[in-house]
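So, could you explain this one?
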Amino acid sequence: MSSESGRAELIATAAATVASRLGPRRPGVAIVLGSGFGVVAEKVTDALRIPYGDIPGFFVPTVEGHKGELVAGTLAGREVLLQSGRFHMYEGHTADEAAFPVRVFATLGVRTLIVTNAAGGIRPTFAPGTVMLIRDHINLTGRTPLTGPVLPGEERFPDLSVAYDVKLRRIAYEVAARQEQHVEEGIYAGLPGPSYETPAEIRYLERIGADAVGMSTVMEVIAARSRRLKVLGISTITNLAAGLVVGKLSHAEVMEVAAHVGDRVARLIEGVVAETE
């Protein structure tokens, strides 16, 4: 994806490939499933599954908890498209490649993006299992998917002052209240990974205003806003960050907590989708 024409052509080809499999389906909402949140896909009815290997420009994930398929179908009465497994930059992908599926979704006509992730908790009141609506993010990866020639349909200088949609966040709060779920709100710091942060780095992140930290999401959100998609971000705090807990951090712990909280997050997403325009 080195040239503008080549990148644009690959996006168009991938979108055409997915559209041919979707047939008459016209999903307006896309949902990116983070580590351990495949349970959301189980709630989709009339599901059509498209392996990443069948889509030009898509990569097969190498991380546990990321299945590697698009799932199209109906959720809460709305047509949706789920990305079950994302491409992380720490797997060797560029920022452009990490954002590639979002650009394909936009080309297909998706107007609302819901991104989920598993994150480490920095705010002292966050315990494993806390669900946090992302109010804003801090991009500490040193990268952006917007580097290079401007792609068709994208803005050169997208405004990220409200990267995460206020109305969608309000709907999520209302849905959570009806479901008697407690949700928090905070700022997500995106780092490149794959190593977990040092205690000193966590103290730094806390001082600059981060409430949670992870290794994904920000590339997708930047690309989505450059295409004027509305975005809702949901982080599940799967572990306390380094220096805030005794013992070692592990991906197994992340997966265990994500699986425990997955059904709650799935119900929350389902409720939000039911009220999307």
